[in-house]
Specification:
Chain A contains four helices and no strands. Chain A has about 110 residues and is mainly α. With about 230 residues, chain B is mainly α. The chains are: A mainly alpha (about 110), B mainly alpha (about 230).
């Protein structure tokens, strides 16, 4: 392989992976200047960030990538619901919640899977 | 230096240690399956540090999508970092902080560091927060690299159901940790509304759906929070 061909994937990583990803963090760095920790504006920004995370949760569950798409929709949604219930019932534990969701996914996939 | 070490230690003892390792086992396996080298995958972990965007980049580049298209999809998925960085930096900044002191904390910000930062840093003295946060982020990226080495070499032997479990780690950990960190009504409402608005916009094939989800659900949640404060 020529040196250029070897470098091509790395060039692609920088140009279409790293840069379009990093630009948002750097914008955030510039925007955050002069904003106080206790400012009311930050309550709104936090709400926006939280809602985006909620959007990611919903999107991965309903329109899943790769092997997760092989698990029926009802099982994926049930796993999220089980995780939510486990969080509330087991001392607000993140670990218990994630574990319960995974167990529900495996059980559901084995019972109702193709 | 001590704060940095404390951050490294925190990076190895949270639920996110396991979540990050698991998620990146999946990414290492995916990179292997799409024909990328291990150094490429590890460099992507370190430079991008964004699991959903990395999955997009690997599958799109690996299947020969146009470069511009890949850049746009990655860029859209990463828009969440803007509000995260804007809300996190005021927490770590001290009056004398220079812009370049904040470059690394900004780069290390991802869902896991953001959530853990907001959970662990408020009781800490302000001067030690940047060091702690850098340790936390660097530590978690190291675990991500460990995960992708494991995934890269196990790729062929990973059963489909296990890969499905690894992919579900992202939404499960986001859900539980946002629930735990939601103290204000606005945060809880934003989570609930985002879960509803997100799928609606995505099915309607609205462009920039995640960004609009954030702005719409986040602003409505904030508005209701203000309304309740005003009525008290």
């Amino acid at each position: 392989m020529t040196p250029l061909a070897e470098m091509a994937p790395y060039l692609a990583l920088i140009l279409v992976g790293f840069l379009p990803n990093e630009v948002w963090r750097m914008l955030g760095l510039l925007v955050s200047r002069g904003i106080d920790e206790n400012s009311e504006l930050l309550v709104w920004v936090r709400a926006v960030a939280t809602a985006v995370l909620a959007g990611v949760i919903a999107k991965v569950t309903l329109m899943p990538p790769g092997a997760l798409a092989g698990v029926p929709l009802s099982v994926r949604v049930a796993a999220i619901v089980v995780a939510f219930v486990a969080f509330l019932s087991v001392r607000r534990s993140v670990f218990a919640s994630v574990l319960a969701g995974e167990v529900a996914l495996v059980a559901g996939a084995l019972l109702f899977g193709p | 230096v001590n704060a940095f070490l404390a951050g490294l230690r925190a990076a190895s003892t949270t639920v996110f240690t396991l979540v990050v390792i698991g998620t990146y086992i999946g990414i290492g396996a995916l990179g292997h399956d799409y024909g990328f080298s291990l150094p490429w995958v590890m460099l992507a972990n370190t430079l991008m540090w964004a699991a959903p965007a990395q999955v997009l980049a690997i599958t799109a580049l690996g299947s020969g999508a146009a470069a511009v298209e890949v850049a746009v999809t990655v860029g859209l998925s990463a828009a969440r970092f803007l509000p995260m960085v804007v809300s996190l930096l005021p927490l770590v900044r001290v009056p004398g902080s220079r812009l370049r002191d904040l470059l690394l904390p900004a780069h290390l910000t991802a869902a896991s560091t953001w959530v853990e930062g907001f959970r662990l840093m408020p009781p800490m003295p302000r001067e030690s927060r940047i060091g702690f946060y850098n340790g936390l982020g660097v530590g978690l990226i190291c675990w991500a690299n460990v995960g992708s080495v494991i995934g890269f070499f196990l790729a062929a032997s990973l059963p489909a159901l296990l890969t499905a479990c690894l992919l579900l780690l992202t939404p499960l950990s986001f859900l539980a940790s946002t629930l735990r960190n939601s103290r204000l009504l606005s945060d809880r409402l934003a989570l609930a509304l985002g879960l509803v608005v997100g799928p609606l916009l995505a099915t309607a094939e609205v462009g920039l759906d995640l960004m609009w989800t954030g702005l719409i659900a986040g602003s409505v949640a904030y508005g209701l929070h203000r309304l309740r404060e005003a009525l008290r």
